[in-house]
Amino acid sequence: MNEHLQIVLEKRVNRTIGNLQNNKMDAYYVRTVAEVVPLIETLCAEGETVTVGGSETLKECGVIEHLKSGRYNYLDRYAPNADLYKVFREAFFCDTYLTGTNAVTEEGELYNVDGNGNRVSAMIFGPKSVIVVAGYNKIVPNLEAARKRVREVSAPANAVRLDTKTPCKIIGICRDCHSDERMCCSYVTLGQQRIKGRIKVIIVGESLGF
């Protein structure tokens, strides 16, 4: 990245991190994906029971492969013949839940939209610790921009990835559909937390996920 853009980016990141911390979330910044797994090793002890929400970001950072290394008791939603809903339910009893996010506001909020609701549910309650990994591209000024990002970027891209029968897959933008395969069913904003440090946000200085 151009050094001048890097300076601007890190000012934005620092503002976001400060507001996440004001909202009682721990927040970290790493410049590259190579730094993500080593940081997670310090936040997630060996032997912990862990699982993940569906996340392209975690895959791109090598987190999924790391969790499968044998260091943890990993509840693998991606395993062949996995009982997906069993893993979803067991997630509430995990030591650590790892996930991406649809958007992080500069005001210190996490914004997510879910279909099944398993991901946002676990972020809100259940696991002792939640680790959120987000590329700098997920940072937006405020909740209005977060909603716009989901409608114009996250939802259409996920529809293509999952091959859903929804309008956003075809036209590339949300149309607030009534499809049986609608993905945008639960809209959740995580602001100030009661339990300080339960949610940990790692912001990466690279564009990740969508």
Describe the overall structure.
By secondary structure, this protein is α/β, with parallel strands linked by helices. The chain has 8 helices and 10 strands. It has a 6-stranded parallel beta sheet, with helices on both faces. Strands 8-5-6-9 form a 4-stranded mixed beta sheet, with helices on both faces. Strand 5 and strand 6 form a beta hairpin.
Name the features.
210 residues; alpha/beta; 6-stranded parallel sheet; 4-stranded mixed sheet; 37% helix
Distance between the terminal alpha carbons, to the nearest Å?
Answer: 19 Å
* Helical residues, percent: 25-40%
- Cα radius of gyration in angstroms: 17 Å
Report the strand count: 10
**Most strands sheet:** 6 strands, parallel
Proportion of beta-strand residues? 15-25%
Low-confidence stretches: none
Total helical segments: 8
Order of helices and strands: HEHEHHEHEEEHEEHHEE
Detail the topology: elements first, then pairings.
Blueprint: H1 3-22, E1 26-30, H2 36-43, E2 49-52, H3 56-60, H4 63-67, E3 73-74, H5 84-90, E4 96-99, E5 103-105, E6 110-114, H6 118-124, E7 129-135, E8 139-140, H7 143-162, H8 167-171, E9 186-190, E10 199-204
Parallel strand pairs: 1-10, 2-3, 2-4, 4-7, 5-8, 7-10
Antiparallel strand pairs: 5-6, 6-9
Summarize the structure.
The chain is built from 8 helices and 10 strands.
